[in-house]
Amino acid sequence: MSHHTIEARELHYVYPDGTQGLNGVSFHIGHGESVALVGANGAGKSTLLLHLNGCLAATRGELRIGDYPVTEKNIKAVRRSVGMVFQDPDDQLFMPTVFDDVAFGPLNLGLPVKEVELRVMQALETVGVSHLSKRPPYKLSGGEKRSVAIATVLSMSPDILVMDEPSASLDPRSRRRLIEMLKTFEHTKIIATHDLDMAMDLCERTIVLHEGRVTADGPTSEIFRNEELLTNSGLEKPLGLQKCPACGAGPVHPTD
Amino acid sequence: MLKIDQNLFDLGRMDTLAMGDSPLHRLDPRAKLLTTLIFIVSVVSFGKYELSAMVPFFIYPLALIAAGGLPLSYLLRKVMIVAPFAIFIGIFNPMLDREILLSLGTFHISGGWISYLSILMRFTLTVLAALTLIAITGFSTVCLALEKLGMPQPFVVQLLFLYRYIFVLTEEAARLVRARSLRVFESRGLGFKPFISLVGNLLLRTLDRAQRVHLAMHCRGFDGRIPILRPMRLGWPEIRYVAAWAVLFGLLRFYNLPMKLGILMTGLFT
Lengths: 256, 270
Description:
By secondary structure, chain A is of the alpha/beta class. Chain A has helices at 45-52, 75-81, 89-92, 98-108, 113-126, 142-154, 172-184, 196-202, 220-225, 227-232; strands spanning 6-14, 20-29, 34-38, 60-65, 68-69, 82-85, 160-164, 188-192, 205-210, 213-219. In chain B, helix 3 runs antiparallel to helix 7 (111-137) and helix 9 packs across helix 10 (192-219).
């Protein structure tokens, strides 16, 4: 009985305006896996993520989180086990202070106050921002906002972490810190990103989406070396696999 | 250039001030809120031509500003921002009400002018008191106090969200305005039409954001109720605080202190 798995079978989604969002997406993600979801703009990454905790309901096909099919009836259980970190932290941090925001989820789960406080402090410590707990969210820097946004989800102790572009609009050092932090998490992770170098650091497996379809699903290192596949999916080789443009030295992750 | 993001909504400083530490800051927000409400009711309940009796009421905001270590000039500037409303509300009073109420030698002052000044004084007192309250308490804490005092939660949530997203919204608006100003040459494109599409754009973006925020709330188990943990305690210091101010306001409301003082003084010299 594991809640940490995701099983998608032939997911189709059509937006109300007729745009095809997903066009038959199938995959299985096992317990503890860390999976990168890559694809060009408009490939359907965000649409897929929104399915994972029932924000969108597939027009056709089936999605199971652990033992539950994602349906109207199970939505509470699903949202409890899938923690979703949105792309723009301003969308996620809506409470007056950081503390209130991180406590929002656990309080909605109906946990006792003492437990909530404990979880909030633990979550803030995990992402290294416990000193910010009394601050209003609009006063934080981009990196701090991102960390707090992750804490708001961690405090609900989800089994699966879903992240939309976690490294977008972060400065290089905050990005590095984020990567190191995510490495320590043992959750099942799905990370939608354009930052292929981060994907190489964090995810052993990659799913490539193109026009609402899975065009590749396999070990990250193999997929990112397949130049033809990347080009066809509107992507480029990660910098770590390219020759240094300044000195011509070989890639950081050399091709075997 | 429009500097909405810098000037008008320099509201963030209010929160910094509210984070200060003084006996006043530590007082339960409900006590402060209640006292300010009593203050506002007392001031507003004065008669139309009342002027002198209101002067002593300045003691309340000024005492709070002194005790809380707040910057007076900053607060006064904030009062000035909303002043146009009050100025235009009463602007026709002097023309409509020409009955002479007061004569200083050959200088006659009509009832209209007095009621106009009375409006301005009321405005200054009440707005200054409200701003002082926010500066020593913090906007969101005032909202929570309102909820604990029985204000329905939908209103509280509206206020909290307004305050949370006003910063995001002004930033967005400022970006739009800046982007436009960079591509406007010799005032072409500054007209009404681009302005309409700019505002429309802002509205659409705001709706989009609202939708995303709503989704984010649902992802964390939102069910129509916003739970907030904030222990509040009403003790003797709070009761004493409210009672003392209420008694003072009562006295000042029903006894015209400056008038009494004036009569006393003129009595001494005649």
